[in-house]
Write a structure and sequence with these properties.
78% of the residues lie in helices and 0% in strands. It is an all-alpha fold and 285 residues long.
Amino acid sequence: MLADLGLLYCALFWGLSFATMKILVEIYPANWLLFLRFSAAAFMIFVFFWRRIMKSWRELLLGGFIVGFMLFAAIAVQTIGLRYISAGRSAFISAVYVLIVPLLIWALRKKFPGWLTLGAACLCVFGMYLLTDDSSGNFSVGFGDFMTFLCAVFFAIQILAITKFTSGKDPITLSFISFVTLTVCALTCSLMFEKPETRLDFGSIYELLFMIIFCSFGCYMVQICSQKYAKPSHAVIIMSLESVFGLLSGIIFLGESLSLRAGIGCVLIFAAVLISEMQSLLKHK
Protein backbone atom coordinates (compact mmCIF):
# COMPACT_ATOMS: atom_id res chain seq x y z
CA MET A 1 0.00 0.00 0.00
CA LEU A 2 2.80 2.43 0.86
CA ALA A 3 4.59 1.59 -2.39
CA ASP A 4 1.44 2.22 -4.42
CA LEU A 5 0.88 5.50 -2.59
CA GLY A 6 4.49 6.48 -3.35
CA LEU A 7 4.00 5.84 -7.07
CA LEU A 8 0.72 7.76 -6.96
CA TYR A 9 2.70 10.65 -5.43
CA CYS A 10 5.08 10.53 -8.40
CA ALA A 11 2.22 10.48 -10.91
CA LEU A 12 0.52 13.40 -9.17
CA PHE A 13 3.56 15.68 -9.02
CA TRP A 14 4.83 14.77 -12.47
CA GLY A 15 1.35 15.60 -13.77
CA LEU A 16 1.34 18.91 -11.93
CA SER A 17 4.77 19.66 -13.39
CA PHE A 18 3.25 20.19 -16.87
CA ALA A 19 1.32 23.26 -15.74
CA THR A 20 4.30 24.46 -13.69
CA MET A 21 6.71 24.10 -16.61
CA LYS A 22 4.21 25.87 -18.86
CA ILE A 23 4.54 28.88 -16.53
CA LEU A 24 8.33 28.68 -16.19
CA VAL A 25 9.10 28.38 -19.93
CA GLU A 26 7.51 31.78 -20.40
CA ILE A 27 10.13 33.24 -18.04
CA TYR A 28 13.33 31.26 -18.57
CA PRO A 29 14.92 29.89 -21.76
CA ALA A 30 14.25 26.14 -22.01
CA ASN A 31 17.81 24.84 -21.56
CA TRP A 32 18.64 27.36 -18.85
CA LEU A 33 15.55 26.23 -16.96
CA LEU A 34 16.70 22.62 -17.19
CA PHE A 35 20.13 23.65 -15.92
CA LEU A 36 18.64 25.38 -12.88
CA ARG A 37 16.27 22.51 -12.15
CA PHE A 38 18.64 19.55 -12.40
CA SER A 39 21.82 21.14 -11.08
CA ALA A 40 19.97 21.85 -7.84
CA ALA A 41 18.48 18.34 -7.81
CA ALA A 42 21.92 16.77 -8.39
CA PHE A 43 23.33 18.83 -5.52
CA MET A 44 20.55 17.57 -3.22
CA ILE A 45 21.22 13.94 -4.18
CA PHE A 46 24.95 14.39 -3.48
CA VAL A 47 24.29 15.99 -0.07
CA PHE A 48 22.15 13.07 1.09
CA PHE A 49 23.95 10.14 -0.61
CA TRP A 50 27.55 11.26 -1.17
CA ARG A 51 29.04 8.17 0.51
CA ARG A 52 27.19 5.80 -1.81
CA ILE A 53 28.05 7.95 -4.83
CA MET A 54 31.77 8.07 -4.04
CA LYS A 55 31.79 4.31 -3.60
CA SER A 56 30.23 3.25 -6.90
CA TRP A 57 30.41 6.15 -9.38
CA ARG A 58 33.16 4.62 -11.55
CA GLU A 59 31.21 1.50 -12.51
CA LEU A 60 28.12 3.53 -13.41
CA LEU A 61 29.80 6.37 -15.29
CA LEU A 62 28.92 5.13 -18.79
CA GLY A 63 25.40 4.07 -17.87
CA GLY A 64 24.71 7.34 -16.08
CA PHE A 65 25.92 9.31 -19.08
CA ILE A 66 23.63 7.43 -21.50
CA VAL A 67 20.61 7.67 -19.21
CA GLY A 68 21.28 11.34 -18.51
CA PHE A 69 21.67 12.23 -22.17
CA MET A 70 18.41 10.47 -23.08
CA LEU A 71 16.66 12.21 -20.19
CA PHE A 72 18.02 15.57 -21.35
CA ALA A 73 16.85 14.95 -24.91
CA ALA A 74 13.38 13.94 -23.70
CA ILE A 75 12.83 16.82 -21.30
CA ALA A 76 14.42 19.37 -23.66
CA VAL A 77 12.09 18.61 -26.57
CA GLN A 78 9.15 18.33 -24.17
CA THR A 79 9.93 21.77 -22.74
CA ILE A 80 10.22 23.24 -26.24
CA GLY A 81 6.94 21.60 -27.23
CA LEU A 82 5.19 23.15 -24.23
CA ARG A 83 5.67 26.57 -25.83
CA TYR A 84 3.30 25.56 -28.64
CA ILE A 85 0.71 23.20 -27.11
CA SER A 86 -1.32 23.05 -23.92
CA ALA A 87 -0.09 21.34 -20.74
CA GLY A 88 -2.86 18.74 -20.93
CA ARG A 89 -2.11 17.91 -24.57
CA SER A 90 1.60 17.59 -23.78
CA ALA A 91 0.86 15.28 -20.84
CA PHE A 92 -1.17 12.85 -22.94
CA ILE A 93 1.17 12.72 -25.92
CA SER A 94 4.12 12.19 -23.56
CA ALA A 95 2.32 9.17 -22.05
CA VAL A 96 2.76 7.30 -25.36
CA TYR A 97 6.20 6.17 -24.11
CA VAL A 98 4.40 3.39 -22.19
CA LEU A 99 3.41 1.92 -25.55
CA ILE A 100 6.70 2.62 -27.34
CA VAL A 101 8.74 0.61 -24.81
CA PRO A 102 7.31 -2.85 -25.70
CA LEU A 103 7.46 -2.03 -29.41
CA LEU A 104 11.16 -1.16 -29.08
CA ILE A 105 11.77 -4.39 -27.19
CA TRP A 106 10.08 -6.27 -30.04
CA ALA A 107 12.22 -4.51 -32.65
CA LEU A 108 15.54 -4.79 -30.81
CA ARG A 109 15.21 -8.09 -28.93
CA LYS A 110 12.74 -9.92 -31.23
CA LYS A 111 10.38 -10.42 -28.27
CA PHE A 112 6.73 -10.23 -29.37
CA PRO A 113 4.85 -7.80 -27.08
CA GLY A 114 1.47 -9.53 -27.46
CA TRP A 115 -1.74 -8.75 -29.31
CA LEU A 116 -3.14 -6.62 -26.51
CA THR A 117 -0.14 -4.32 -26.71
CA LEU A 118 -0.40 -4.03 -30.48
CA GLY A 119 -4.12 -3.33 -30.22
CA ALA A 120 -3.38 -0.66 -27.62
CA ALA A 121 -0.83 0.91 -29.99
CA CYS A 122 -3.45 1.17 -32.75
CA LEU A 123 -5.95 2.66 -30.30
CA CYS A 124 -3.30 5.14 -29.18
CA VAL A 125 -2.60 6.23 -32.78
CA PHE A 126 -6.31 6.87 -33.33
CA GLY A 127 -6.49 8.80 -30.05
CA MET A 128 -3.56 10.96 -31.13
CA TYR A 129 -5.35 11.58 -34.45
CA LEU A 130 -8.36 12.95 -32.58
CA LEU A 131 -6.15 14.92 -30.20
CA THR A 132 -4.22 16.61 -33.02
CA ASP A 133 -7.27 17.14 -35.24
CA ASP A 134 -8.32 20.78 -35.54
CA SER A 135 -11.89 22.07 -35.48
CA SER A 136 -12.17 22.05 -39.28
CA GLY A 137 -11.79 18.27 -39.33
CA ASN A 138 -8.41 18.40 -41.08
CA PHE A 139 -5.60 16.35 -39.63
CA SER A 140 -3.07 18.71 -38.15
CA VAL A 141 0.19 17.87 -36.40
CA GLY A 142 1.93 20.98 -35.19
CA PHE A 143 5.53 21.58 -34.23
CA GLY A 144 4.67 21.24 -30.53
CA ASP A 145 2.94 17.86 -31.14
CA PHE A 146 5.95 16.54 -33.04
CA MET A 147 8.44 17.66 -30.39
CA THR A 148 6.34 16.10 -27.63
CA PHE A 149 6.13 12.81 -29.52
CA LEU A 150 9.93 12.85 -29.81
CA CYS A 151 9.95 13.30 -26.05
CA ALA A 152 7.97 10.06 -25.68
CA VAL A 153 10.48 8.24 -27.91
CA PHE A 154 13.46 9.50 -25.88
CA PHE A 155 11.73 8.58 -22.62
CA ALA A 156 11.18 5.06 -23.93
CA ILE A 157 14.88 4.71 -24.83
CA GLN A 158 15.81 6.07 -21.40
CA ILE A 159 13.62 3.46 -19.67
CA LEU A 160 15.33 0.65 -21.59
CA ALA A 161 18.72 2.12 -20.71
CA ILE A 162 17.81 2.25 -17.00
CA THR A 163 16.73 -1.40 -17.13
CA LYS A 164 20.07 -2.34 -18.66
CA PHE A 165 22.37 -0.36 -16.37
CA THR A 166 20.65 -0.72 -12.98
CA SER A 167 20.85 -4.51 -12.84
CA GLY A 168 22.79 -5.21 -9.65
CA LYS A 169 23.90 -1.57 -9.40
CA ASP A 170 23.10 1.36 -7.15
CA PRO A 171 20.20 3.29 -8.75
CA ILE A 172 20.82 6.40 -6.65
CA THR A 173 24.37 6.74 -7.99
CA LEU A 174 23.01 6.24 -11.50
CA SER A 175 20.49 9.01 -10.81
CA PHE A 176 23.20 11.40 -9.67
CA ILE A 177 25.43 10.78 -12.70
CA SER A 178 22.47 11.12 -15.07
CA PHE A 179 21.46 14.41 -13.42
CA VAL A 180 25.00 15.76 -13.72
CA THR A 181 25.11 14.73 -17.39
CA LEU A 182 21.78 16.43 -18.02
CA THR A 183 23.02 19.58 -16.25
CA VAL A 184 26.15 19.77 -18.41
CA CYS A 185 24.15 19.20 -21.62
CA ALA A 186 21.59 21.85 -20.68
CA LEU A 187 24.26 24.41 -19.76
CA THR A 188 26.17 23.75 -22.99
CA CYS A 189 23.06 24.17 -25.16
CA SER A 190 22.00 27.25 -23.23
CA LEU A 191 25.37 28.96 -23.76
CA MET A 192 25.41 28.00 -27.45
CA PHE A 193 21.82 28.71 -28.49
CA GLU A 194 20.22 30.89 -25.84
CA LYS A 195 20.77 33.97 -23.78
CA PRO A 196 20.87 32.62 -20.20
CA GLU A 197 18.71 34.46 -17.68
CA THR A 198 21.21 34.70 -14.83
CA ARG A 199 18.85 36.59 -12.54
CA LEU A 200 16.17 34.63 -10.73
CA ASP A 201 12.60 35.76 -11.21
CA PHE A 202 11.35 35.86 -7.61
CA GLY A 203 7.78 36.03 -8.82
CA SER A 204 8.18 32.41 -9.98
CA ILE A 205 10.52 31.17 -7.24
CA TYR A 206 7.86 28.91 -5.74
CA GLU A 207 7.23 27.22 -9.08
CA LEU A 208 10.98 26.69 -9.56
CA LEU A 209 11.42 25.25 -6.05
CA PHE A 210 8.41 23.00 -6.64
CA MET A 211 10.04 21.58 -9.78
CA ILE A 212 13.41 21.06 -8.05
CA ILE A 213 12.30 19.59 -4.73
CA PHE A 214 9.13 17.67 -5.53
CA CYS A 215 9.21 16.88 -9.26
CA SER A 216 12.94 16.18 -9.69
CA PHE A 217 14.66 15.18 -6.44
CA GLY A 218 11.59 13.93 -4.56
CA CYS A 219 9.81 12.00 -7.30
CA TYR A 220 12.93 10.26 -8.56
CA MET A 221 13.88 9.05 -5.07
CA VAL A 222 10.33 7.98 -4.19
CA GLN A 223 9.99 6.11 -7.47
CA ILE A 224 13.18 4.13 -6.84
CA CYS A 225 12.14 3.19 -3.28
CA SER A 226 8.54 2.36 -4.20
CA GLN A 227 9.41 0.09 -7.12
CA LYS A 228 11.32 -2.18 -4.75
CA TYR A 229 8.00 -3.24 -3.22
CA ALA A 230 5.34 -2.62 -5.89
CA LYS A 231 4.48 -5.07 -8.66
CA PRO A 232 5.82 -3.78 -12.01
CA SER A 233 2.39 -4.00 -13.66
CA HIS A 234 0.87 -1.93 -10.85
CA ALA A 235 3.75 0.54 -11.01
CA VAL A 236 3.33 1.36 -14.70
CA ILE A 237 -0.46 1.68 -14.45
CA ILE A 238 -0.24 4.01 -11.45
CA MET A 239 2.49 6.17 -12.99
CA SER A 240 0.52 6.44 -16.24
CA LEU A 241 -1.97 8.52 -14.25
CA GLU A 242 0.58 11.30 -14.75
CA SER A 243 -1.19 12.10 -18.02
CA VAL A 244 -4.55 12.48 -16.27
CA PHE A 245 -3.12 14.76 -13.59
CA GLY A 246 -1.33 16.74 -16.32
CA LEU A 247 -4.60 17.32 -18.15
CA LEU A 248 -6.40 18.34 -14.96
CA SER A 249 -3.59 20.68 -13.89
CA GLY A 250 -3.76 22.53 -17.21
CA ILE A 251 -7.52 22.96 -16.87
CA ILE A 252 -7.51 23.93 -13.17
CA PHE A 253 -4.42 26.12 -12.91
CA LEU A 254 -4.03 27.52 -16.43
CA GLY A 255 -7.65 27.72 -17.48
CA GLU A 256 -7.05 25.57 -20.56
CA SER A 257 -10.03 24.22 -22.46
CA LEU A 258 -10.51 20.93 -24.23
CA SER A 259 -12.90 20.24 -27.11
CA LEU A 260 -15.11 17.15 -27.07
CA ARG A 261 -13.18 15.63 -29.99
CA ALA A 262 -9.82 16.18 -28.30
CA GLY A 263 -11.26 14.95 -25.00
CA ILE A 264 -12.26 11.66 -26.63
CA GLY A 265 -8.72 11.41 -28.02
CA CYS A 266 -7.31 11.86 -24.52
CA VAL A 267 -9.59 9.13 -23.15
CA LEU A 268 -8.54 6.74 -25.92
CA ILE A 269 -4.83 7.39 -25.31
CA PHE A 270 -5.26 6.76 -21.58
CA ALA A 271 -7.29 3.60 -22.31
CA ALA A 272 -4.49 2.43 -24.61
CA VAL A 273 -1.95 2.95 -21.83
CA LEU A 274 -4.01 0.75 -19.49
CA ILE A 275 -4.73 -1.92 -22.12
CA SER A 276 -1.02 -2.21 -22.90
CA GLU A 277 -0.47 -3.42 -19.33
CA MET A 278 -3.40 -5.87 -19.21
CA GLN A 279 -1.32 -8.60 -20.80
CA SER A 280 1.20 -8.61 -17.97
CA LEU A 281 -1.65 -8.61 -15.44
CA LEU A 282 -3.36 -11.59 -17.11
CA LYS A 283 -0.05 -13.45 -17.37
CA HIS A 284 0.67 -12.84 -13.70
CA LYS A 285 -2.79 -14.09 -12.76
